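Weekly structure sync, notes
Attendees: PL (lead), two postdocs, one rotation student
Agenda item 3: pending single-chain targets
PL asked that the sequence for the first pending target be pasted directly into the notes so everyone works from the same version. It is reproduced below exactly as submitted, 335 residues in total.
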Amino acid sequence: MKKAVKRLAVPVLAGMLALTGCGKEEATGGKGDGKEGKTVTVGVTQIIEHPSLDAAFSGFKKALEDNGFKEGKNVKYDVQNAQGDQSNNQTIANNFAAEGVDLIFANSTPSAQSALNATKDIPIVFTSVTDPVGAGLVPSMDQAGENITGTTDSHPDAIRKTIQFIDEQMDAKTVGLIYNAGEQNSVAQIKKVKEAAKNTDLKFVEASVSTTAEVKQAAESLAGKADVFYIVTDNTVVSAIESVVSVANEHKIPVLAGELDSLKRGCFAAYGFDYYDIGYQAGKMAAAILKGEKKPSELKPEYPDKLKLVINKTAAEKQGVKLKPEWDKMAEYIE
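Predicted structure, written out during the meeting:
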């Protein structure tokens, strides 16, 4: 009896292996194609919590879902937040590399830099990065890195149009800038702001911060010196934008932002786009990579698709801005 079982085991086992192998190939069709089979793990690294970055992550997940990757079914997200600490940021990236996640979604410039420092093999898709080239992430906006690509949160015309609006549409001579000088993302934007103002009479006063706790004091230090505040997409300052707004409301200083989400938090105006949208763009890239359709190096970095001027009427009143009739054709309004 035992001998008979042993003789039967070989063909039966071979048949089972053949069926198993065939089933797995049909189920996955390659690495994580969004069908039933292998569950892929996406390591999500974000420098800090604030609505813009959170919206970008929501857009990213929606794009993956629309392309067949459903959370709890065939994709798992390991979400880590560095809480503004660069050492935490690098530890998160190192852990993802050690664990061998299938893809890293890096949501901010510092997050993307740390991810690239940690691995040259695991695919990285970034978003909320203002200057991917200056940050050393990609060779150019026409060429991705070997294992990294993504979307930028800097529309080529946004800073230029904001400075033009301040110069031509507002009674302002001095612009107050508050930013984290330790963020390459922010330094690159401040440089562009000053370049955009070269042919104007605008002057600048600056205050640098390193943590969110310093933001209100920085804003107060510029009150009485600045006619307007221009807050670029700086993660540290945007995380505490309410502190800037409270000072601005008290001293009747209009606050222009670098992104639209800050308007809901009390800023007066912004040329911007929805962070959800650039997250969605990045998510489509990630889906193509996880399906095996594209390598990161084959997907060049992308700018935001849309740019618009939006004005917050309530904030305008609180910050002493009288709305002009000609703005009706230039901007969208929110209350």
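Discussion points:
- Residues 1-36 have pLDDT under 50 and may be disordered.
- The chain is about 40% helix and 20% strand.
Action: rotation student to compare against the earlier draft before next sync.
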